[in-house]
Amino acid sequence: MSELTYITHIVREVNKVTERCGAIFLYGENIDYGSRLSGLARGLTVNPAGRIQNVGNCELTHVGVGLGILLDGGQATLFGKQLDFMLLGLEQACDTFNFIRAYRPPDTWGSFTIFVIVCDQGYQGPHSSFNGAGDFASLINIPVYCLNAADDAAGVVDRHFASPGFRIICLSQRQFGTPTLQTPVEWYSEDDSLFRYRSGDDATIVSLNFALRDALEMDNRLIDSGVQSDVFHMNFVPGADLTAVVESCRRTRRLVLLDDSKTVTKFGDILIAELGQSTVSAEVLSFCRRGCRDEDYGANEDRLIPDFERALRFIRQA
Q1: Could you count the other beta carbons within 10 Å of the beta carbon of residue 244?
Q2: Strand ranges of the sheet holding 165-172, from the earlier edge strand across to the other edge
Q3: C-beta separation of 284 from 252 below 8 A
Q4: Backbone angles phi, psi at 63, to 5 degrees
Q5: What is the radius of gyration, based on Cα positions, of the chain?
Q6: Which residue among 37, 136, 257, 270 is least packed, with the fewest CB closer than 10 Å?
Q7: Beta carbons of 37 and 28 less than 8 angstroms apart
Q8: What are phi and psi of 260, to 5 degrees?
Q9: How far is CA 176 from CA 5, 9, 119, in A?
């Protein structure tokens, strides 16, 4: 049996939910022909009560339809080719959903999930490289999950896709053809805002967005140098309980953050503020991109490259 790739694993997990969830409406541009959203929708299936529907090019309407189905108590799932296009639906996602939250109790809601590709593979240019999932979480005040490995993908899809409420689930196009990352999860929080993959007392490593592979590679190299670390992945979940990471930092006194998004504001800053409020004395080393230079908005490698040697020196310092 051939090894599952990142994208085929995720589609398989989605199908496990659509097989059992009853009437559900799956829709998107080119969802049922052509490239099938660069492979995101290839192999999608639904139960007899569900429907897969190709729709035209109007993201503002797409998001409005999904929220309308949620408001009516139904189940809707929008598949988007790139996060850039979801900017066109922000008015509905923010204002319409705010209206729903203000005037309809959550126990009357149906489900609306957006699965969307983040074009992070590089050399795509300014209209196909928006990498700011955390900003969506902040603007709309909803959970935004970035799928990295086999276990977190399976868990997030099983526990949140087709569940009541509104959320966005992001996928990394850079990883589509790579073998699915099989590092087992040791622990995860109730809201899936945090996943812990490894344990150690020398440092706390936290990845955000799609930086888990880099975090685990860093940890592998640190292990070779005799350093044992807690390794967490943190999703963009507003109001998340960060106690597990805070207590890890209290023990290790060293925090290394890896965030390959291109936002100016960072969810990792929330963790740093939480450390200060908890009077945890921990040194912080951050590998991230805060926005871009003008020339970086053109076609380029579009890649965060963490400095492993710098991380080792940081952790070993007195």
Answers
A1: 18
A2: 51-54, 25-28, 75-80, 111-118, 165-172, 144-146
A3: no
A4: -70, -40
A5: 20
A6: 270
A7: yes
A8: -95, 10
A9: 7, 10, 11
Return all residues near 152 (Cβ < 8 A) that are at least 6 apart: 185, 188, 192, 195, 212, 233
Q: Report the SS3 class of residue 214.
A: helix
Strands 144-146 and 165-172: parallel
CA 142 – CA 238 distance, rounded (Å): 7
As to burial, measured by CB atoms within 10 angstroms (0-12 exposed, 13-18 middle, 19+ buried), residue 93 is: buried
Q: What is the pLDDT of residues 265-296, one digit of tens each?
A: 999 999 999 999 998 999 999 999 988 888 78
Whole-number Å distance between alpha carbons of 56 and 58: 6
pTM of the predicted model as reported, rounded to 2 decimal places: 0.96
Candidates 39, 42, 134; CA nearest to 83 is 134
